[in-house]
Amino acid sequence: MNPTAPTISELIAQERRLTLPHFSYDDAYALGGLLVSMARERHAPVAIDIRRGAQQLFHAALPGSSADNDAWIDRKRKVVERYGESSYLVGSRFRSKGTTFDESSRLDPDTYAAHGGSFPIAVEGAGVIGSVTVSGLPQAEDHALVVEALEQFATTIGA
């Protein structure tokens, strides 16, 4: 898997398209299981995290991942929590202005990372209620894996 970098409009469209009708504890487990299956099939050395608000609902670390991936998850997730958009979209907005998130956001890069892989979990009528994050691949691939899993998951719950 070597996805090309999506445009800002494509990233915005992904977020709009992937608003879910609901998201429960069981949904978090199902989405997490789907991500684990997809990552294992691809031999992807990733860590996976799903949150609703401050509560961690799912976490998995696959062979080849490390504690560094958990640190990246925290930093990417904090971008989603702060901006309400995917970490990849936030980073792409800065890059489109000829700068970087680290240079121009005025946020601590040890706390925030606008690199692909964290995606907002949005529910119809409620907005962003959490995040799903993958770390371990190049940022475009982390992002693409999350989007692919959310697309498959959305079809199973009738989104």
From TrEMBL:
<dbReference type="Pfam" id="PF03928">
    <property type="entry name" value="HbpS-like"/>
</dbReference>
<dbReference type="InterPro" id="IPR038084">
    <property type="entry name" value="PduO/GlcC-like_sf"/>
</dbReference>
<dbReference type="InterPro" id="IPR005624">
    <property type="entry name" value="PduO/GlcC-like"/>
</dbReference>
<comment type="similarity">
    <text>Belongs to the UPF0303 family.</text>
</comment>
<protein>
    <recommendedName>
        <fullName>UPF0303 protein C5746_15415</fullName>
    </recommendedName>
</protein>
<dbReference type="InterPro" id="IPR010371">
    <property type="entry name" value="YBR137W-like"/>
</dbReference>
